[in-house]
Amino acid sequence: MDFGFTEEQERLRTEAVEFARNELASDLVARDAESGFDRELWRRCAEFGILGSNVPTEYGGQGRDVVTTVAIMEALGYGCPDNGLTLALNGQMWAVQEPIQQFGTEEQKERYLPLLISGGYGAHAMSEPASGSDTFALETTAEKTDGGYVLNGRKTYIGLAPVCDVALVFAATDPTVGRWGITAFLVEGDASGLTKGGNQPKMGLRTGPFGDLVLEDCFVPDSARLGPEGAGASIFTNSMDWERSFIFASHVGSMARQLDDVIQYARTRRQFGEPIGKFQSVSNRIADMRLRLETSRLLLYKAAWLLDSGDAAQLYSALAKLHLSESFVASSSDAIRIHGAKGYVSEYGVERDLRDALGGVIYSGTSDIQRQVIARLMGV
Questions:
Q1: Is the pTM of this model over 0.85?
Q2: Which of helix, strand or coil describes residue 120?
Q3: pLDDT tens across 139-161, in order?
Q4: Residue of 98, 128, 243, 351 with catalytic role
Q5: For the chain, what are the domain ranges?
Q6: Which is nearest to 303 in space by CA: 232, 252, 235, 259?
Q7: Is-catalytic flag, 243?
Q8: What's the CA gap between 92 and 36, in Å, rounded?
């Protein structure tokens, strides 16, 4: 196994860091305080090729392999401290674009992939008020009618919902058979009967819009169905392998940036006549941060390697999601402690990483659910 990047991958990583630093360095403190989503930054990311990195060239993408794309997304997170923006980018790439690539008809791919990678917004709409961890207990229904389906229900806590151009919506076409009666649909943002809720204030990741989608007698044609009727649960499970594996790719870059900042601060901040990094209580935290970063990277790229090879990655996607999310929280807490009062006030941006990190133990399946998945896949 080769643990190094190719020259081309290193070049792409360097370019991604430079792009992020030069083009995505808007006033993050103010936007975070206002829960502001900057469409211009999203457009720049699309023009740079972020959203189309692993999309085939025939649909306007760059056609890169998964490992290379993940390397770019990690580098983007290193250069861009806006965790809300990078999470939204990863969410669309892995949970919306990837299912369309794998399960979409040629017409669906030609219609939606160029739209999304050129700066459009795609939402992955699964969660509902009564179904969070109990994923397939859906109340949203899709009733068959002439030429299509009529959808009714409410989706909650959906990334990019307030601005979405298309939403991947999961609904029950046959509620009597549980998960086997779930079907996936591509619902366009201007569809009659679809209402996009406003951006909900939240603890962290504030720069990524987040809200509800309400479907009231929303008609979609047969051509909007993604995959066969009843295949929604399988499509969702597959999409979760991709999302859980890589939605933290940019956050691993954030952890690397966070570590570099902490090391610099520990070298220059002096107390009792010497740099605080000389104190074991500080240096031990820095060593733990490095350990979490390295183990997180190994799991991230193991999952990428498996999916690039066409192998099953459900176990490693759960392992990666669990470890990366918990590690980002722990390292963000250590960064605050090392910075002291400067770490706690908003001016310096250190505390923002912790607020952003905490959401990771919930979205894309809670840490407790990941542990259940891991245990089940080991035969427990």
A1: yes
A2: coil
A3: 999 999 999 999 999 999 999 99
A4: 243
A5: 7-121, 123-230, 235-377
A6: 252
A7: yes
A8: 18
